[in-house]
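Lay summary

Proteins are chains of building blocks that fold into shapes. Our project writes down both the chain and a compact code for its shape. Here are two examples, one after the other.
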Amino acid sequence: MSRFLKVFLRESLEGKIHLAAFGKHPAWDDHIDDLGLNTESLVLTKKLLYSQGIAGQLARGAWDQIERSGNAIEFNHRFCWSRQNQAIAGAVWASTDRKGRTRFPMIVCGQVGVDGPKAIDLLLRPIDELGVLSRSVKTQNEFRELYNRVYGELYRRTLQPPANQPTFQLTESEQNSILPSLVAISASIRAKQYRVTNGSHFRLISTLSRTRDTLCLWIAYLAAQGLSSSPPFLAITTNGKNWVDLIIGEPVDKDFFCLRANQTALPPTWLSVAETDRAKLESAARSFLEEGRRGQTGLRTQNRSWWASLFGR
């Protein structure tokens, strides 16, 4: 088992929240002096997402061709990396350093000892506010003061974490539009079972207009599959785009090609569904969506016995 699968999102946080910032900002000549990388999971997040993922794409010139063809998108993402009752949620923004170089983004993310949907509700709004305010920051000290202010706000919020799972409302049209993607990913998970250590990347159509709802839904839905290996799940949304990128298990460098690729450069993943399974999978997915739509119990991410019993697992 790799170090990532062994330790990622499995620290003892003792009720603390950790906020990290890294990447590029105009107050620095080059990369930001890392802030808040105080857990191994956050160190691994920077390594896999930034130092290997983004830097690896740039070193190989993976994005050069799609930039020339007009099929590259800007960094403007929200993400949640979740594993059981711990999660990292954050944002990736296009940025620059003091010398005007624009190839690398700025990333801010927080780690907290709650499941993915709760982490999304707890972390994303303050992190987005930090991103907006950081645009007017001119010096490194001003950036650190802003970081410390947001960190303090998050700390106060964790003193009274939400007791209930976040809920959301989907229209009937939204339910129908997202159902094929839910069924497809369930079929793939059922077929593979993810007993191997290698992760898998999927790009799926997700027509929900609200970033928060998209992340909450997909993180909760992946957790609801009840995989015995309990791999980490990463969901990435792109502002203004109708897809979601999902990584199950340990990512490899090429998985992060998705960060700058539009649907022409990286089309949605084609996943086949056996007709013998389709009806059961669709029924289970509809039950999941209906539970969220009613707002009675929220999107539970644990102990979904109806799913485990669906195929006698």
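And here is the second example, written the same way.
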Amino acid sequence: MRYLCRAQLLSLLLLPLLKARLSVPAHPIPQSFLPLMISTWNYTDANREAWTVLRQGPRRTRQAVIQGCLHCQNSNSCGRLLGGHSAPDSSGGITLEAALIDGANMDYGAVAGMAGIRNAIGVAHDVLRYTNHSLLVGEAAARFAEAMGHKKEVHSLSTTLDVLLPWLLGKCQPNFWRNVRPLANDSCGTFSPLPQEQQQREMRQEYPIEPGHHDQVGFLALDTEGHLHAASLSSGARFRIPGRVGDAAVPGAGIYADNQVGGALATGDGDVLMRFLPALLAVEALRAGQSPASAAEAVMRRLLRHHTEFNGGLVVVSRLGVYSAACAGLDEFQFVVSGESSGRSMRRVEGIKCLDRHEVVTGGPRGNFYVVSKKIWAAGGEDVLVQRVEKITLNEGVDSREFEEEYLEDKDAEIDVDEGEKAEEVRSLLDESPGDLLLHQLGLAPPFPFRFPFIYF
């Protein structure tokens, strides 16, 4: 009877979900292929930088993942959002977050919501080395960074404004508000809560991930002695509500590693990732005896059961170097793998096709979610701004898709045409007094003080 109870418990832990082609086949890596460096998305230059450090010898895993993050935060080779200061929050603030975990003892250091300090991964490393804490946030994190010798940097607002102004002129779409008034899908605020009786059934909002426009990257290093480190770096979701902390800084959400079993990197919609801690779940699935392929698939299905709108990917690596991945909501999820065989470095970009998530969601929640609207100019004739919204309804297992087209008024189109002129006006004012600026005086923002932090990097 005792044996049966244990078997039943184990079966519950390892119960596979419905079969689907969510993951790439597991790649068994011979010991001679180690060390191993894996990074999310197709940023080969950053992976190469990390790999150069890792192959210098054993016990270089920590320095390797840090070097990968440093390359991304100091260059534009990991996309505009990470290196180009193009992911402001809704108030125009630029902040970074980063995290580092040691698989030997689960030591963890992270920062979030930190403005004015470029070297976010370096500050996260200092949190791990010099404090008993795991996560520091906001202005206090910046003060800690300065105390550790990191310098604040001033950055021009030009790049930020290039992203922020079109968003403001487009009625702040998309944003992260719900159940507020005025309606969040047609306004910039200021918002206040809707009375409970007026709140509608929750609509899931999808946030597509554009190729090359990723706001988070993760690195995982495994050496020949079995040491694991993982690190993550993020500029945060564009137009997020100020004060929001993302998955890159939360233990188990974006990264996790344990020398005894393996590690994982997760990326995608951070607010969903933080609710499920997929990197931690994947590592615990390895501990329970699952393969990297089945672990990645099971975790991805768990997310999709509750969040049909999820976009993102997950890479899982065993302590022996076997790796696999799963993804949802993307045309393709790519990650870079570097290793060594017979003294020669080998690097490849893995790309997996994601299953249509509507085929996966058979027992999950029902309801509606909307693809973020895209604004395009009609070709030929008079310029008319067209807003196309794809509405997908899941009811009783039957999918239906509706397309709605809304032709905006001419005055909205005229505002868009004048955008460049307004932007020049803003920049000229910034050149004269690069401190606080109230954009609403120019008619470019909602009727509340719009404040740019003075310190940018």
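What can we say about the second shape? The longest helix spans residues 292-306.
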